[in-house]
Amino acid sequence: MGNTQGKELSPQMRERVLKLFAKFDVDGSKSIEKTETIKYWKSNFAKLNTEELFKSVDTDNSGTISEEEWLNFWTSVLRSGHTEQEISDELESIETGSSWCKFENLDKKS
EF-hand domain location, by residue (predicted)? Predict the structure, then answer.
């Protein structure tokens, strides 16, 4: 598989990841709050999706997800061996209202 430690998201993938961030961040505050994700998922297991999302991405446990945390999460997904195509597929799934996917074995120290 090669060395994935220093991998970074391509400019196109970074833009796609930030586009989804903006869909969650409806108030434009540059951070995602739990109320925003619950509204985003509506009744599609909204609270469960929100809890899983925050467990995975809110690394400082502040109760909000910053753009930096969001980008670091998706970079750690890439570095854990997932491809940008797999990330793209997951982003598309989330964009269409599907549940949050819990990625395993991620290095949280990105």
Answer: 45-80
* pLDDT for residue 31: 97
* Average pLDDT score over the chain: 88
**HSE, side-chain direction, 13 A CA sphere, residue 54:** 18
Residue pointed to by tokens 């009744």: 43
Closest to 41 (Cα-Cα) out of 103, 93, 90: 93
1-21 pLDDT, tens digit each:
444 556 899 999 999 999 999
State both tokens at 79. 């570095």
DSSP bridge pairs for 64: 33
Residue 73 identity (one-letter amino acid): F
